Amino acid sequence: MLSKRLNRSALGIALILLVGLVTPTLSLASGSTPNAPLAVSTQSRTLEVGGTDWYAFTTAGMDSNNDPSHVLIVLSPDPTGSATFKVWSAEGLKEKATEDISHPISPMGQGTKLQYQDGSLTLDRYGGDLVWHGGFNVGGTFYVQVGQTGSSPSKYRLTITGDSISFPASAATTGQGQTTQAVSAAVTNSAIPLARVPGSSIGTSMAPTGQMVTINPGGQQWYAVKVDRLAKDEDKQNLNVELVAPAGSAKFAVWTLQRLAERAISDDPNKKAPPIGQGTVNSYQDGSKTVDRDQGYLTWSGDVSYGGTYYIVVSSNNSADPIQYTLKTGVAGQ
């Protein structure tokens, strides 16, 4: 569970009542403003060099159980490194608009890569995406500023998910928007970043199709399954997941939004923020013999009566060659 107290350095500004909004000039080129934010979309959006886009979300704050509302923001830029984002409160934007150069105003948060060490390997918990999370004790409207970085235009996807959040009804629903003015910038690294591949991270999660998929050695692929809440609270439903692949070649884990947010801040994610489930071999003992019911396929079934989005991450498991697998999912009542 995330802390029920807002971190002073990251979320303290959120405790101030939101009264009005003064739009600051924070970039040389802009595709929107805090007063006219864009609507979050599943489609990619392009930012020209020097461009900035604005989004907004409203959170309800602490619930009836005194738990903070969790928000997870993920930015998937293509090419990698071509965009970043900052998170602002309305009060922070007002202060930014009139800041003194000797006392610069910082955002309440910003997107970062979440990497950790596993022996000699440096691994990324979100496949290279930029991530920010927060637990809000107090409700209000907050703003996400996406800015292009480097010398190349950015084609990005932004996702904002969480409990008890909504988006302004006035958010613009246009597609690519205006072409922003290009500005000159010093380039210190001319390397071409890798492109974003569908399914390579949480921000580019795919829907399971039940079709054969190829995964490279050491690779992983993300899937998202949205489960609707049942009308009757007393009814239960299970999410069933099956991974069909050569025995021992792949594995999968199942995540919720809250568990991913906990994993983002855990100093030991494997122990303190494990997935809610993972694929296992469905076997049983017949005397001294272990019998596999499903020919080595991995399965998992879990209660998803509360609904929401569930993320399934399929990973290559010590295979020196590309492998092919099929991921099957379904929701069944109990």
Poorly predicted runs: 1-30, 174-196
Overall mean pLDDT = 75
From the spread of the alpha carbons, the general shape counts as: globular
Instruction: State the CATH class of the largest domain.
Output: Mainly Beta
Biggest pleated sheet: 5 strands, antiparallel
**Count of spatially separate domains:** 2
Describe it.
The two termini are 28 Å apart. The longest helix has 9 residues. The strands form 6 sheets. The chain has a 5-stranded antiparallel beta sheet with strand order 5-4-9-2-11. A 5-stranded antiparallel beta sheet has the order 12-22-14-20-17, with no helix packed on it. The N terminus is likely disordered. It has 2 domains: 159 residues, Jelly Rolls, CATH 2.60.120.380; 129 residues, Jelly Rolls (Sandwich). The chain contains 4 helices and 22 strands. By secondary structure, the chain is mainly beta. Strand 6 and strand 7 form a beta hairpin.
Keywords:
disordered N terminus, Jelly Rolls, 334 residues, mainly beta, 2 domains, five-stranded antiparallel β-sheet
